[in-house]
Design brief:
By secondary structure, the chain is of the alpha/beta class. The chain has five helices and six strands. Strand 1, helix 1 and strand 2 form a beta-alpha-beta unit. The chain starts with a strand and ends with a helix. It binds the ligand O=c1[nH]c(=O)c2ncn([C@@H]3O[C@H](COP(=O)(O)OP(=O)(O)OP(=O)(O)O)[C@@H](O)[C@H]3O)c2[nH]1 and magnesium ion.
């Protein structure tokens, strides 16, 4: 079984990646599994790709190993793409999913369902010692609900209806989410790249 380090401290992402990579026989190690505690990496970029590169390259340099990082978020059309790269810290630096959802629903309170289009975006960066970092992107289109439904997943999953679904992402099983998600779609791109390289 191969091992891969993912430069994340987000438990929801770790769960997604463990399931998504299990079919390749790849075991996931996240920053939560490491013995030494890794200081929080400041996400100072102004795009998903820049932030993913900062996370992957910082940890790759620290361990001299290949490292994957994920920078992701939700883009809401009625909010001109916000919260975007600020999705985790939308309602404050403490990164509270409930507070983020409440803020989002409040900002959309006057916006009708058909104008609540949005997408999840995931950019994966793979940093390798002495080589240039590569990037793969995946999206998942959908709509923002009027209120939260479901308990699975993390982040904005309870208020996101994937296109064509009458269940929110948090009402889908993890297997169902991992068939259609932005993270899955980015991994499909990564798999294509791995086959060609
Ligand atoms: O409902 C959701 N389902 C998802 O599948 C999903 N993927 C991302 N997000 C949101 O976007 C932020 C990422 O921000 P982010 O990439 O900076 O990660 P993070 O700060 O949480 O952890 P780290 O990986 O940086 O350690 C997350 O916290 C969430 O709010 C999601 N919400
Ligand atoms: Mg982050």
């Amino acid at each position: 079984m191969e091992k891969m380090i993912i430069a994340t401290k987000n438990k929801g992402k770790v769960q997604d990646f463990k399931e998504l990579f299990s079919k390749y026989g790849i075991e996931i190690k996240s920053l939560l599994d490491l013995e030494e505690s890794i200081p929080d990496i400041e996400e100072t970029g102004d795009s998903f790709a820049e932030n993913a590169a900062i996370k992957a390259e910082t940890i790759s340099k620290m361990f001299s190993l290949p490292v994957l990082a994920d920078d992701s978020g939700i883009e809401v059309d009625a909010l001109d793409g916000r919260p975007g790269i600020y999705s985790a810290r939308y309602a404050g630096e403490e990164k509270n999913d409930q507070a983020n959802i409440a803020k989002l629903l409040n900002e959309l309170s006057t916006v009708p369902l058909d104008k609540r289009t949005a997408r999840f975006v995931c950019v994966l960066a793979v940093a390798r010692p002495g080589q240039s970092t590569i990037f793969k992107r995946g999206t998942c289109e959908g709509n923002i609900a009027n209120e939260p439904h479901g308990n699975n997943g993390f982040g904005y999953d309870p208020v996101f209806y994937p296109k064509g679904s009458d269940k929110t992402m948090a009402q889908l099983s993890s297997q169902e989410k991992n068939t259609i998600s932005h993270r899955k779609n980015a991994i499909i791109q990564l798999e294509k790249w791995l086959k060609d390289n």
